[in-house]
Amino acid sequence: MSDIERAQRHRSRRPVSARGQRTRQKLLDAAEAVFGRKGYHAASITDITRRAGVAQGTFYLYFPSKRAIFAELVRERSRALRYAIRQATAGLADRLEIERVGLLTFFDFIRKHEGIYRIVNQAEFVDRRLFQWYYRHFAKGYAAGLRAAMESGQIDPGHSEVLAYCLMGIADFIGMRYVLWDGSSPSSEVVEQVMAFIRKGLGGPR
Amino acid sequence: MSDIERAQRHRSRRPVSARGQRTRQKLLDAAEAVFGRKGYHAASITDITRRAGVAQGTFYLYFPSKRAIFAELVRERSRALRYAIRQATAGLADRLEIERVGLLTFFDFIRKHEGIYRIVNQAEFVDRRLFQWYYRHFAKGYAAGLRAAMESGQIDPGHSEVLAYCLMGIADFIGMRYVLWDGSSPSSEVVEQVMAFIRKGLGGPR
Amino acid sequence: MSDIERAQRHRSRRPVSARGQRTRQKLLDAAEAVFGRKGYHAASITDITRRAGVAQGTFYLYFPSKRAIFAELVRERSRALRYAIRQATAGLADRLEIERVGLLTFFDFIRKHEGIYRIVNQAEFVDRRLFQWYYRHFAKGYAAGLRAAMESGQIDPGHSEVLAYCLMGIADFIGMRYVLWDGSSPSSEVVEQVMAFIRKGLGGPR
Amino acid sequence: MSDIERAQRHRSRRPVSARGQRTRQKLLDAAEAVFGRKGYHAASITDITRRAGVAQGTFYLYFPSKRAIFAELVRERSRALRYAIRQATAGLADRLEIERVGLLTFFDFIRKHEGIYRIVNQAEFVDRRLFQWYYRHFAKGYAAGLRAAMESGQIDPGHSEVLAYCLMGIADFIGMRYVLWDGSSPSSEVVEQVMAFIRKGLGGPR
DNA sequence: CATGAATGAGGCTTCATTCAT
DNA sequence: GATGAATGAAGCCTCATTCAT
Q: How far is CA C3 from the centre of its chain?
């Protein structure tokens, strides 16, 4: 049976009972941890359910397949990240300030959700559509913010999407190198160097 | 049996005969194609040998395990990429020029070796050491080049490693977005935007 | 993955080596025994491979799925039954004689291949097409023989297909009752009674 | 726990309340439909309860196991078929007339209860005892009727049980071929051909 | 009476690896 | 050097059944 058929047949629980909600969440959290540590393929459903403290069969009450929980996880955490950044940067007017706070929030997020960071890269071979969606979606919002800053003259005019991908690439690689590999928040020295590069790169008055 | 034990026990890794060399290369090429298309886990040894036109057993005459051929591939292609960039930028003195040519060479490389690009991201969960080695090794050379440019005053002084990761992140994300997803070389407009950002970011005497 | 996709992907071994042929046959024989005893669903691949004396994985070298070996079995044994009847009745001119010999051959066959007899009934829910094919195919040949007998005036004229299904039904139920349930060949008394019914039913001169 | 132990332990099998009766019947009807369409094994308890519009747990309030509802269904429908035939042939004196009406009633029944017809064949591997009981029970009554007809000279004397299985086989196969596969009542031509065969086969004074 | 969440055994299938030829 | 049949561990998933509410 294909994943699609299964998903259709599946009474995708979305259970109403509080107990069900809790179980579903436990599975999601366990999945993040396990996928993060072992990677999508090496992680087994058994690993997930064991960590969640439920029986194997229970998994399929809430998710129709391994792929499905993975996709759900990516979507959910992606939402959470965007939300966190939006919250942290709300009220800020200066684009550079937004960049800095956004960056720090991102580093913070991947420290707390190491798993999700590692996971996304794998999505390419798990669900190519989801993988692209993740970045495109993020880039869209990013680019919009940059465009606004260009219009108000805060930064040099330019191709907002290209810029968005440049900035995402920077955040991603710095996060990988200094947060994930070093296992700590990047030193202020690193942050300052990155911000200096970005500030100059984006330009604007002065 | 562990991978390490197997590797030690393994004989006849480096065949001398020309025929052996050819078989080995066929396997490596097939592996790149298959890993690139399906991803490391979904690709089976059978896929590889079938594509290489040899029998299953033959695989183990040349590589002790699936991981091993993967690692070999990453190392080999990484070497090839660095070589290509070195060749292309040899003789160039201007750092910005080096950046531009390096970028274009990189885009060219991933167009020809889509597989390898996709593959590296997976390496994290196949062989974490290899994964980090890949980037660290590249970053080291990159940073050295940047340091030289700083010393000669071509670009602003700063933390060369951080800068290297920033630039690698940019190349990686732009390559993903405009080469891989669009399936073509990035338009000159995109390249110019990226270069403008880098030029300003790196600074130096106007 | 669907059965069809798998079958296509499957290098349906049809191995040439004598060893392979032997293994394939062992699996087929084991499957007949196991399906016959336990029924299609209760029979596991493990049951089959254990009985055949090979490892589980070996099964999939020769058959792409449980359904596939089942279908193969039905087809193969159906062919064997038709062949046996054709051989036994070759040279007979009298239709009644053909009926009698055919019946006895059939009883003999289901004694030797209890499994297959039991199995066919299940085919309806395993592979509906195969199930109908089995009976339709048999009926076609049967009806042709009856038509010839009608034309030569050996039996009363009539609707040959309907007659064929009547005669098949008789053979099937008598076989079930007296061969399978009693576990022996039907007594001559039973055979005579059946033949008397058929003789009168088919009519003809006298 | 074995089926037998469970059945003994099981309480509240025969609900007294009208509501309970209704639920039980809903389950039985749903089971007929589901077993008929998917077959015993492919049908799940969930399929049945979903179709019946009750919760999964409710099933076990009325039946101790999947096998049990299956057996109940076979028994119930078998009773219904025998009852229908008895009703339809009550008052008829001529054996041929009884045969004809019985046949038509049978065809009618399997049109209305396609499910049950298909189901019985599977019973062999679900509950062998039940399977044989079904046919033996039916044959017994059939044979008795034939014996009476022999004694009154309406048909040729002979082995009544053998004859009963012949006639059951005919009805079964003609029903399968012309009712189930064609999805309609058999044409009068088919019925006449069958009846002609039976009439001649049974003999009697002209 | 009824619910529906939870269980866990067991089935089919894949695939990296070994080995006899 | 090469072959390809064989192995068996391990994974995903289903489903009859139980149980707390």
A: 24
Residue type, C92: L
Structural contact between residues A116 and A73, judged by C-beta atoms closer than 8 angstroms: yes
Torsion of CA D10, D14, D19, D21, to 10 degrees: 120
CATH for C33: 1.10.357.10
Cβ atoms of D163 and D194 closer than 8 Å: no
**Which pLDDT band, with edges at 50, 70 and 90, does C145 fall under?**
very high
Computed from CA positions of residues D68, D69, D70, D71, in that sequence, does the dihedral angle turn out positive or negative? positive
Distance between CA atoms of residues D80 and D85, nearest Å: 9
Touch test D–B: 3 Cβ pairs or more under 8 Å: no
Strand E contact with D56 (CB < 7 A): yes
Cβ neighbours, 10 Å, residue C39:
20
Phi, psi of B153 (to 5 degrees): 75, 10
Phi-psi region of A91 (alpha: psi -120 to 50; beta: other; left: phi over 0): left
Judge if the beta carbon of A1 is closer than 7 A to nucleic acid strand E: no
Q: Which of B127, B135, B170 has the highest number of chain A CBs within 10 A, making it the mutation to test binding with A?
A: B170
Please determine, for residue D188, whether its predicted confidence score (pLDDT) is greater than 70: yes
- pLDDT tens figures, D54-78: 999 999 999 999 999 999 999 999 9
Integer Cα distance of D73 and D62 in angstroms: 13
User: Are C130 and C74 within 8 A, CB to CB?
Assistant: yes
Any atom of strand E under 7 A from CB of D51? no
Provide φ and ψ at A2, rounded to 5°: -80, 165
Contacts of A141 (CB under 8 A, 6+ apart): A82
B56 touches strand E (CB under 7 A): yes
Specify the residue for token string 């990453």: B74
Q: What is the 3-state secondary structure (H, E, C) of A100-123?
A: HHHHHHHHHHHHHCHHHHHHHHHH
Number of domains in chain A: 1
**Would the pLDDT of C90 be above 80?**
yes
Q: How many residues does chain A have?
A: 206
Q: Residue B17 gets which letter from DSSP?
A: S
Under 8 Å CB pairs connecting chains C and D tally to 118
Amino acid at position D123, single letter: A
pLDDT of B53-91, one tens digit each? 999 999 999 999 999 999 999 999 999 999 999 999 999
Domain residues for the domain of C9 are 3-202
Report helix angle A114-126 to B114-126, nearest 10: 140
- Distance CA C145 to C1' E15 in A: 51
The per-residue pLDDT for D12 is 43
D73 in helix, strand or coil?
Answer: helix
Q: Are residues C165 and C159 in contact, defined by beta-carbon separation less than 8 angstroms?
A: no
Lowest mean pLDDT among A1-15, B140-154, D192-206: A1-15
The tens-digit pLDDT sequence of chain A (206 residues) is: 556 655 656 654 556 688 888 999 999 999 999 999 999 999 999 999 999 999 999 999 999 999 999 999 999 999 999 999 999 999 999 999 999 999 999 999 999 988 888 888 888 889 989 999 999 999 999 999 999 999 999 999 999 999 999 999 999 999 999 999 999 999 999 999 999 999 999 998 86
Residue A114 Cα distances to A107, A118, B89, angstroms: 10, 6, 37
Q: Among the residues of chain D, which ranges form H helices?
A: 3-9, 18-38, 45-52, 56-62, 66-89, 95-112, 114-126, 128-151, 160-174, 188-202
Contacts of C1 in chain A (CB under 8 A): 2
Report how far residue A53's alpha carbon sits from residue A27's, in angstroms, rounded to the nearest whole number.
9
